[in-house]
Amino acid sequence: MVKSAQEMAGIAPEVLAKYEPVIGLEVHVQLLTKSKIFCACSNRFGDAPNSNACPICLGVPGTLPILNKRVVEMATLASLAINCTVHEHSRFARKNYFYPDLPKGYQISQYELPLATGGWIDVEHDGANKRIGITRLHLEEDAAKNLHEGFAESATKAYIDYNRCGTPLCEIVSEPDMRAPDEAYAYLTTLRQILLYTDVSDCNMEEGSLRCDANVSVRLRGTQEFGTKVEVKNLNSFRFLQKALEYEIERHINVIESGGRISQETRLWNQSANRTDSMRSKEKAHDYRYFPEPDLLPVHVSAAWREEIRRALPELPKAKRARFVSVHGITPYDAEVLTGTQALADYFEAVAKAGASPKNAANWMQTELLRRLNDSGKEIEGSPVTPVALAELLKMVESGQITGAVGKKVFATMFESGRAATEIVAAEGLAQISDTSAIEQAAREVIAKNPDNVAKFKGGNEGVFKFFVGQVMKATRGQANPQAVNDILRHLLA
Length: 494
Ligand code: ADP
Ligand code: MG
Ligand code: ZN
Prior knowledge:
Strand order of the largest sheet: 2-6-7-10-1-11-12-13-14
Number of helices: 16
Strand content: 15-25%
Distance between the termini: 60 Å
Low-confidence stretches: 1-7
Helix content: 25-40%
Bound molecules: adenosine-5'-diphosphate, magnesium ion, zinc ion
Radius of gyration: 30 Å
Largest sheet: 9 strands, mixed
Shape: elongated
Mean pLDDT: 93
Structural class: alpha+beta
């Protein structure tokens, strides 16, 4: 739990246990279109400030927005992936507010007729599955980005980068269905994974392409009615989401326990002070003076177009996990790791397709491959060992051409050099020794050198057997057939 001096008097566990948190998330996702939502400006991230701006996204009077069709297509795909009903007719509205990052003085958003409503996602949490409702997914344009020189209250200058102005956004609003900070964390992780699979966004939190606001309240356990909620903004990492929620939950309980009332407000996560600060009292819809956007036609998604988009839906993580378990026979845990990203899952299936046993593929990927990728800062897409090359190595182990121990050394060489397993094994003479006379000779030498351990073994210390196996493997550079080593040692030590 995150605590800070005055506001956060420690809460006794029995007091904490009386309350149930209620959490709902609003997630903004930038879509990976080439151009912006209402103009032809590039939607690329990281360009020189204000290099991607035109009269339309700068809101010059007399210009008119034109809806980017690809935005609707991507948002529809995302909506279907989270089980929403995509409406044939939706509409843009003006959300009026005055702020330097919004040159028009209003944001074009969707309000009473959003693109999609009524969805859900299944979230695994604490070994159980929980279905979290999605209230709506609507489209809007992003505002520009403010950059401050100096820090917080002592900022001296503000810069505005209008490149972000007009970036297409999906806002995904959840039902208040979550009951703990780690459940909210799991929801966001799952949602992000689904969106990544559909390729509509890179969901990069550091770059702001996935942003999350958290709504939280507490109520006495057993009661139906929700408590007053607070919205926390500025949560630009998973960790901050969790910390901010933990902080708010304790703050709410403290206020209520001391006879106070929670006021409905918007707060900001203050990452340097590890607390939330009040930002403003909660704005109401009427503060925005919403009205239908007169410069745009209603959005029309025909049933035919919607179904065409549905056909482009990839197999989503949950279905893929289930299939990996049932078809490939790997454990649910392995399936979870290997469906972490689409690229990882594709790699695994390519190894299996190239003829390696899926179980071995799963094991070797998780131990040898992922560890080395991680150590060398590489992504699976840039792996020096291709799926086919890994499959070739695994098949050599599976057929007994090389031992598992040698296979690991060969893999290391493959990873460093990009050479093929067969080539490395031939060049370095690593083929498995199944010639029993060679193994027997090595075993006899080990036994002769270790009379003490022989005595121990004969005295009933079965554990010493492993020592002998290890020594023989070492003497044969890991190349001896392990079963033969076992058999021969048993025989010689009997
Ligand atoms: P507002 O009109 O204040 O924006 P909404 O009804 O649109 O409120 O809900 C915004 C978000 O807050 C949604 O994600 C919803 O699930 C969540 N939410 C609503 N009521 C509560 C509550 N009492 N406690 C926690 N979250 C809530
Ligand atoms: Mg809202
Ligand atoms: Zn523009």
